[in-house]
Amino acid sequence: MEERIILNTGTATLSIITSGAELIDNQSGAGISSVDVPAGYYAFFISKGTTTGTTWELILLSSSDNLPAAASTYAFSTVSTTTRQTLPATTGPYIGSEITYPQGTVLNTGNALNTSTGRFTAPTNGYYMFYGSTQFDNSLVSGTPTFNFTVLYLIKNFSTTPNNVLVQSFQPNPGSLVGVNVSCITYLNAGETVSMAGVAAVSSGNVYQVVVSSLYGYKIAN
Is 109:76 a contact under the CB 8 Å cutoff? Predict the structure, then answer.
């Protein structure tokens, strides 16, 4: 994952302009071709790993005068799953399903991540960074149905507000297999959760599968 932090130390507005067919995902609609960074502000970007479309995601645009103190604690990282997770496909309203990690974790400070539910619970108030990925893969589903669409989410407090989407990645008509990733920085109060969830519609049948799922993150600031 490639990251870029751009600090405007000048007195004029700094415009960050994309190159060629690249766009920036500002999490509020369609991709944009430029971002204005006011004097004294900084912008934090993460690469989506693509070369066309929304290639970069704007994670944070904030005043450098109010940059929160660094923390970098409560790190966790799952083992990439080798067990396929079968989930219900959407036939009408979206059916969101949390992704779990039966292979466990590489690191799980304070056991903040519950691998059975897929939920990270914030131990303390602060800013947290999350990065997740999975492979929507119907190659072993009966009939090998293709996907009409897939959506991968990071969701805050899924158990009480399953529509509280922090970030999403939508893939239309990707065939029977597609790899997707999502990332964000968000503020959590102690006890609030973040989990990765999927939604998919398929050409036949009523289930789909995900595999090679992973999620990692840590607290970056108070």
Answer: yes
Distance of CA 33 to the CA centre of its chain: 21
Residue 39 to residue 6: CA distance in whole angstroms: 11
Tell me, what's the pLDDT at 10?
85
pLDDT digits (tens, 9 = 90+) for 45-96: 777 667 777 888 776 777 756 555 555 689 999 999 999 999 999 987 788 9
60-66 long-range CB contacts below 8 Å, 24 or more apart? 60/185, 61/35, 61/37, 64/7, 64/40, 65/40
pTM of the model: 0.71
Distance CA 130, CA 134 (A): 14
Bridge partners of 4, per DSSP, are: 45
pLDDT reported for residue 2: 62
For 77, 91, 93, 193, 199, the CA distances from 134, given in Å and listed in that order, are 14, 21, 22, 19, 12
> What is the tally of helices (H) and strands (E) in the chain?
0, 18
In which element (H, E) is residue 6 found? strand 3-7
Contact 129, 110 (CB under 8 A): no
* Of the candidates 66, 90, 77, 193, the residue with the CA atom closest to the CA atom of residue 151: 90
